[in-house]
Amino acid sequence: MVALLRTLFGLVLAPLLVRFVVLLGRLQGHGAMRRYTRRTFLRNTVLGSVIVVLAQIAGGFVYFFWPNKTSAFGTEITVPASAIPAVGAAPYVNQAGKFYIINNEDGALALYWKCPHLGCTVPWNETEGDFHCPCHGSIYDRHGVRIAGPAPRPMDLMSMTQDASGNVIVNTGNISERSGYSPDQALKLR
Ligand code: FES
């Protein structure tokens, strides 16, 4: 994004700014203040207005597209042992970290809730006991494995560990893709 903005600035704003400065320099350097005609005045006024408008557009562009970083996503998040669901129960959901912890026979998984198809948030479907993406209908089982819909792969995994007190630490900055499920992906909780 920063690179894009730099390019935008370089292509549009910078040449105009340079031209404006050169014009001012000419006016002062050649004693042109005396020859400061109505035409020159209008030209500089229009040029200045264009620069101001473009700067406002660029500012709005930056404001609109600047990523809204949530404070927790991308960091390690500790989930208290008391919040960890029992085997076979509905998953624990962490809004700030954008993940579920689901506990199965093989162990627990931390599933990133972003759909691998086009990025929608995938909610848990309590009635069916699986995850249903509302956007294009992809369905994932309790291991996050796609069982229907257009998604190209299972839900992504976040790495996690368990401390001595039984709390689970999920690293929301360490997300990995996978092509299927194997038991070694799960963390057997104490
Ligand atoms: S974004 Fe989930 S199925 Fe398309």
Low-confidence regions = none
Cα(first) to Cα(last) distance is: 44 Å
Q: What small ligands are held by the chains?
A: FE2/S2 (inorganic) cluster
- Stated plainly, the CATH topology of the largest domain is called Rieske Iron-sulfur Protein
Count the beta strands: 10
Main β-sheet: number of strands, strand sense, barrel status? 6 strands, antiparallel
Radius of gyration: 28 Å
Beta-strand residue percentage: 15-25%
Give, in order, the helices and strands. Answer: HHEEEEEEEEEE
Total count of helical runs of at least 4 residues:
2
Q: What's the CATH class of the largest domain, please?
A: Mainly Beta
Oligomer: single chain
Strand order of the largest sheet: 1-10-9-4-3-2
Round the mean pLDDT to the nearest integer and report it. 85
Shape: elongated
**Corresponding CATH architecture of the largest domain:** 3-layer Sandwich
